[in-house]
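1st attempt posting a full record on here, be nice pls
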Amino acid sequence: MGDTAGPRTERGDRTVPAPGKGWRDARLLRRARACASVLAVLCVVVLTLAGTLRGTVLSRGFYQSVLDDERAYDRLYDEVLVDPEAQPVTRSLLARLPVPEGVVTGNLKTVLPPATVRELTDSQIAALLSYLRGDTDSLHLSVDLTPVLANLNDLGEVYLGSLVSGSGERSEEDLDAALEDLDTALDDLAAGRRPDLPRVKLSDKAVGDATRVLLSGVPEDERNALRPQVEGALSVGDVATALAAVGPHLPGTAAGAGGKEGRKDLVRITDGGQWDVVQDLQDSGADTEALRSARGVTDLTLGLVQTLATVAGIGAAVFLWFLSPGRRVYRIRRLSELLAVGGALTALLFLLARWRADTWVWTPPASWPPTLASLISDLERTGARAFTEAGLLASLAPLVTGLLLFVSCAAWERRLSGRKLTRRTRRTAMAGAGAVVTTTIVLGPALLPTAATGSERVYCNGSVELCELRYDQAAYLATHNSMSSTADRFISPLQDGDITTQLDNGARALLVDTHTWEQRDEIAERLQLSEYAPDMRKQITGLIDEASPSRPGLWLCHAVCRGGAVPLVETLRDIGDWLDAHPGEVVTMIVQDGISGEQTESAFRRAGLERLLYTPDADPDARWPKLGEMVEKDRRLVVFAEHESGPAPWYRNFYRYGMETPYAFKSPDEMSCVPNRGDTGKQLFLLNHFITHGGGSRIDAGEINDRDFVRERALRCQAERGHPVNFVAVDYANLGSAQDAVDALNESRLP
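the predicted structure (as tokens):
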């Protein structure tokens, strides 16, 4: 088809159609072109709006961004759940334990770990998006409280550990008075009160008497399993650990039955552990009709309307291309004008929406706690602002593209006036310009909002920002002798919750010991090399034969498996399950290896963890990857050995890559930063931050795990050793606020 159908006149070097002579200038076609122009502009507006909706309201990354911008998860713990008006909720989550206000937040994080809250929130976002996209016919937001119910079972050990560790210990020389005090302490513990603990030096007979007192309230079928743990603690005067071990097993008390009763209550009031959020929102006065209205808009806009706009936009562009008079470059310029007008009109609409955004904010019912109402309102305002900003940015696609094409066409016309191009070159250029216009009309508005709001965010150890830190730049809370816990009934525990509970509560490095079960003649040798105090070694020697007969296999033990052990392969499977449930978390294990590298490799293979293992570079000085890279590749478990190296390539000797501080401190005043194993100048830095005199000390842990104490020592060691601390290894990680110190260290290292 030619450029014109009528006579031509010559103007310089250009050939233009004679006015009024071409059939394209017919009145009917002019009106049709005007209608097509209006339709093209409307299609640009509709497609830009649809693209903005798809990149914001229908994007999981949009909601994650809004939640992070308003620090929603931090505010949930720091403001909402500690609000006095939110106490009915927090009391239910705490299984109605009479927990002092000072430790409410810490225990809430045990029941509702931040990672669990984020997962529950993400699942609701997914359900909401499914409804808005039209994948489901009804709005159904149901929270699976299974993780919460499981965590309630772990609350006893962690809560009681905190409760008894904060008690003041007083010397009691009279044994009968001490036994009476122990009986009183049991009553206090059963009522959830902080007990007043005696500390006495007990003979072997007195240890037995005191053990009988403490176990008197425990069901008979559980006493034998608890006896070694209680006797081991009492033998060195550690009444707090003995009470922490007994407390969860006291029937009919707040301490013993809290987790079980809380679990029953949650199952009862949530229809078998499934919480119907929509019903509760409606009961509290929330208007869910707004969501149904939004469903109607998105369903219509992203369904029939977007399809019609796409087809109509292409049709209008084709119509104007073939049925407009003048050269092809003139037609391109005409389409570019329409594109720019559509973008400008869209921008004006979003500016108007931004001006009226405050009227969109829903006012929560007066019955809601003020902190929760404030959080919801802030999230709505931030979401509305982000939506309009994305729309304004999306409108730039057609606006800027149209202006650029208009300028290019004008320049092209000027060029044509001075020099002719070959027909082939002209056609190629025009075809390319036409493709740009059509692509911009159809795809530009849909793609730009996605770029503006970002794709679904990747979280690394609970933070988007941490993804930008290299593995050797980040700080991690580490639990010393992670397997040695009150929950798993170790005779001399150094943690309260088990390994999964420690991970839930923020630990991202586990210091564990692997062993095979010792023979009788190996006990004395292992104890001599252990960190146990002399009195504890003697006591263990007298307890372990009757309590723990030899068992085959590979175990996680604190020197002597008869003093407490958990199976290696099964524990590794639990760690793997936890990592699968938390796909953004990077975990490190530093193994005091009492078994061979071949046995370790076999255990990890049987546990199915090879798929998650990260292999460090053979060169210890090589650059470590960013946490985000490890998460994206799903290589999120780093395993080091204290002695071995290999044969598996992922199993490296830690002290080739890392250095540490001493660990045999007898008091907080002795804690230094001088070099120990690994010497100096390594890329990884382990801060041993625990007291080992006489075994683990709850009293010392409560002091040195304080946020300021941890942070100040970490910064001091960083200055002395010329490298930031990576692993902060503590005893009794549930005591104090070491996690807050690690968070502060990471925040100071963000780019």
